[in-house]
Amino acid sequence: xxxxxxxxxxxxxxxxxxxxxxxxxxxxxxxxxxxxxxxxxxxxxxxxxxxxxxxxxxxxxxxxxxxxxxxxxxxxxxxxxxxxxxxxxxxxxxxxxxxxxxxxxxxxxxxxxxx
Amino acid sequence: xxxxxxxxxxxxxxxxxxxxxxxxxxxxxxxxxxxxxxxxxxxxxxxxxxxxxxxxxxxxxxxxxxxxxxxxxxxxxxxxxxxxxxxxxxxxxxxxxxxxxxxxxxxxxxxxx
Lengths: 115, 113
What we know:
The complex is a heterodimer of chains A (115) and B (113).
Chain A: E1 5-7, E2 10-13, E3 19-24, E4 31-37, E5 44-50, E6 53-56, E7 65-68, E8 75-79, E9 88-95, E10 105-106, E11 110-114
Parallel strand pairs in A: 2-11
Antiparallel strand pairs in A: 1-3, 3-8, 4-5, 4-9, 5-6, 7-8, 9-10, 9-11
Chain B: E1 3-6, E2 11-14, E3 19-21, E4 23-26, E5 32-38, E6 45-50, E7 56-59, E8 62-65, E9 75-77, E10 86-93, E11 102-103, E12 107-112
Parallel strand pairs in B: 2-12
Antiparallel strand pairs in B: 1-4, 3-9, 5-6, 5-10, 7-8, 8-9, 10-11, 10-12
């Protein structure tokens, strides 16, 4: 596709369920980022991949959050035992550059609601 | 640590009014600075950027100047249009941290005809 694609667009989970959120970056993009955006707030950094290597996971809020990008393309953000405070929009972004900030393309996000 | 503070919204203006959205930052080293925009129902888009002190970023009539002495990156536009209604985010990218962004909380702009 032409842009960063995220699925599902919306996800409703019961508290305690595990969820998996998918990101398809723009083809050939080296860097991939995940952000969490709570309602009315700016996005907050979660983790960063360069190809398949996870170089920074300092923003993951707990060990219930896990991200992978096994072949350096598609990435999955997994949240185990979801809690209400996990409700947010999860944004994925990709860049053709190794230091991604100057040419970053965002997806439309996955809105997660935990009931 | 690194942080970004934006003026709170919502900001409501009439068409053709002058816009300023204030943004100040705290950072170690020499970050790059950005303004991103989120139109209703759409994803975040880069509006403009500046990578070093005194640089001016500009796009679509919007401007912002990287002021190291005041640690600011205020967004301005001389004459806003209804189509500029959106949420605007100021952000910084810390030096040598792979390009991750630290965002402000966003400022909602509503332009009335």
